[in-house]
Write a structure and sequence with these properties.
By secondary structure, the chain is an alpha/beta fold. The protein has 13 helices and nine strands. The structure holds phosphoric acid mono(formamide)ester and norvaline. One of its GO terms (cellular component) is cytoplasm.
Length: 338
């Protein structure tokens, strides 16, 4: 039997290193089959509920397109459109959705909500982002890293995550590095370092796999000789408006720009971003925030760096589809014959 059958995906540490390797390998196969018009729909008659308490472009569309490609059907339950958390408890919602659907995706605020959903649902539950973790994003990131260096082991690949390292992306990167042994540097002011216990646990596990994880405030030290610089927004969905002033003050010097790329000492350095990015003023939010805080050229990443590296950044975004499809197939099929 497929080892991932009926398993939840609430955080990456729900998986072993081998599970993760299998998910990525299956994603590569599914990506290739789709590109060659040879995809076989394996999930016909499966039904998937998509609960979104926060907005989303990539995650929602990837779940939907992955389901459509595989012959499954989805119900989108947007913010405020169910009784969840208002008139009906998470427990009761989990019980009914688990009877109607074969799987449930949840994006929301508190991580304990998804833990309760998973506890009471008969069907597997997948985390499409909580304030603590964003595991399906990391699956796409690992696939993108692998595609850039197909022959290299993860412990020979250096990645610096620069910016708000105590958000869901920082935590999930830590967990990913602990499972695959990536050489990960979290480059951020101390106030934005992840929770100590998680850091120590992940560092210990990463070392067993010949990898390493460090936290540093020093940009030059953190990005030196890296293969990848990865960043994310400085203020995440659901954070209080009042946080902007403080966060920007802390992170202003951690912007990914050309002078930071020069510090890597690697002319081939690649740039990742989970998106959406505040890289220009072409959105209402970009315009008001960049003007208010006097950023001439992007916030966490400058527009010139973003444009120059957009090919890999959008490949990373497309990889959300292939990796989410891999998770759906893995957790909904007892046997995978591909
Ligand atoms: N990266 C990511 O999760 O994007 P969305 O918020 O658009 O889903
Ligand atoms: N840290 C970001 C990730 C977005 C994909 C957020 O939670 O808003």
């Amino acid at each position: 039997m497929n080892n991932l059958y009926q398993r939840d995906c609430l955080r990456l540490l729900d998986f072993s290193s081998l599970d993760l390797k299998n998910i990525i390998t299956l994603a590569q196969k599914l990506k290739k089959d789709k590109k060659n018009n040879q995809e076989i729909p394996l999930l016909t008659r499966k039904k998937i509920a998509l609960i979104f308490e926060k907005e989303s472009t990539r995650t929602r569309c990837s779940f939907e397109v992955a389901a459509f490609d595989q012959g499954a059907q989805v119900t989108y339950l947007g913010p405020g459109s169910t009784h969840l958390g208002t008139k009906e408890s998470i427990e009761d919602t989990a019980k009914i959705l688990g009877r109607l659907y074969d799987g449930i995706q949840y994006r929301g605020h508190d991580h304990t909500t998804i833990e309760i959903l998973a506890k009471y649902s008969k069907a597997p539950v997948w985390n499409g982002l909580t304030e603590k973790f964003h595991p399906t994003q990391l699956l796409a990131d690992l696939l993108t890293i692998k595609e850039s260096f197909p022959k290299k082991k993860f412990h020979h690949i250096k990645c610096a995550f620069v910016g708000d390292a105590h958000n869901n992306m920082g935590n999930s990167l830590l967990e990913a590095a602990s499972l695959v042994g990536l050489d990960l540097r979290l480059v951020a002011p101390k106030e934005c370092w992840p929770e100590k216990n998680l850091f120590i646990l992940c560092q210990k596990e990463a070392r067993k796999k010949k990898g390493n994880i460090i936290c540093t405030e020093k940009i030059e030290e953190g990005v030196k000789n890296v293969d990848f610089i990865y960043t994310d927004v400085w203020v995440s969905m659901g954070e209080r408006q009042e946080i902007w002033d403080k966060r920007i003050k802390l992170l202003r010097s951690y912007q990914v720009n050309h002078s930071m790329l020069d510090m890597t000492n690697n002319a081939q350095v690649k740039v990742l971003h989970c998106l959406p990015a505040l890289h220009d003023q072409n959105t209402n939010m970009g315009k008001s925030i960049l003007q208010k805080y006097n950023f001439k050229n992007g916030m966490e990443i400058t527009n010139d760096v973003f444009q120059k590296h957009q090919e890999i950044i959008f490949e990373q975004a497309e990889n959300r589809l292939h990796t989410i499809k891999s998770i759906l197939v893995s957790s909904l099929l007892k046997e995978i014959n591909l």
